[in-house]
Amino acid sequence: MAAAAGSLSGPRLRLSSRLALVTGGGSGIGRAVCRRFAEEGSAVVVVDVDESSAEETLRSLPHGDQRHSVFVTDVSCPQSVHSLVSAVQKQFSRPPCVAVNCAGITMDGLLLKMEAEAFERVLKVNLMGTFLVIQAVARALIASGAKRGSIVNLGSIVGKVGNLGQTNYTASKAGVVALTKSSAKELARFGIRCNAIVPGFIDTRMAAKVPPKVLEKVLQLVPMGRLGDASGGLFM
Ligand code: NAD
User: Fold this and answer.
1) Is residue 57 part of a domain?
2) Measured from the CB, is residue 103 less than 6 Å from ligand 1?
3) Cβ count near 39 (within 10 Å)
4) Which residues have CB under 8 Å from 163's CB, separation 6+?
5) For residue 21, what are the β-bridge partners?
6) How many folded domains does the chain comprise?
7) Residue from 206, 219, 227 to probe ligand 1 pocket by mutation (most atoms less than 8 Å from CB)
């Protein structure tokens, strides 16, 4: 029997027919996103370059082994992303109707000292990786005749305001926002929505790499005086 509207079980299963692909699903925000989708009834494809982290996420999901799957992929590699989407389609007999691009890295250093490789690598993972996933998922959705889809990309507040030691990262995240806006304009006619989220500092492995001195300055700007909680403290 269907759950009555407004009952406890009703709203939590509102994504039961969905397949969501989450990159960077092995840690931090990506892991929290995987959990939230799974709790809402969606099947989840956990994508990460780090297999053991991705497997750990999978094990933490409701009905982990049965409904969901891990795919080890480097999002900065075009061939790998192409193979990922084909393999997902093969396993689930449909493309993901939701893609959340959480895969990201930092390679911090002051502008005057930064190696070109550190700039290029961060742009490749954060910006090109996001582009490749959007493109592969959108192509698959359109080819399958699906009339809707949703793509969510992770920008960052520092992409708007800048940050010491993060010329590469901030450029990549500002790029993600621009990429999202242009993708949204191109893909709207196929029923595919593209949105970006620009979080402040969230308590994850990535934030743990920020030097304490910098973090202290950042926290002075946060009214709550603390890092955000990826697991959704907002909803409690
Ligand atoms: P995290 O380091 O905890 O998780 C990032 C995940 O991405 C890791 O599991 C890592 O293995 C994976 N990854 C890295 N390179 C990859 C690649 N080439 N291919 C596939 N997976 C790869 O970081 P997080 O804090 O959860 O960040 C998630 C996203 O949110 C990132 O895009 C980050 O830039 C963004 N963000 C984070 C914060 C923050 O304060 N933590 C703030 C704003 C935005």
Assistant:
1) yes
2) yes
3) 14
4) 169, 170, 214
5) 45, 99
6) 1
7) 206
Given the CA of residue 106, which atom of ligand 1 is nearest to it?
34
Report whether residue 13 contacts ligand 1, using a CB cutoff of 6 Å. Answer: no
CATH code of 73's domain? 3.40.50.720
Dump pLDDT digits (tens) for 27-43. Answer: 999 999 999 999 999 99
Q: Is 49 in the pocket of ligand 1 (CB under 6 A)?
A: yes
Contacts of 31 (CB under 8 A, 6+ apart): 25, 53, 57, 60, 230
Q: How far is it, in rounded angstroms, from Cα 58 to Cα 45?
A: 9
> Angle, nearest 10°, between helix axes 78-92 and 129-144?
40
Cα–Cα distance for residue pair 159/149, rounded to 1 Å: 26
The question of whether 13 is a catalytic residue gets the answer no
What confidence tens digit (pLDDT) does each residue in 135-190 have?
999 999 999 999 999 999 999 999 999 999 999 999 999 999 999 999 999 999 99
Q: Is the CB of 166 under 6 A from ligand 1?
A: no
Report if pTM > 0.90. yes
Q: Is residue 232 part of a domain?
A: no
CA of 24 to the centre of ligand 1 (A): 6
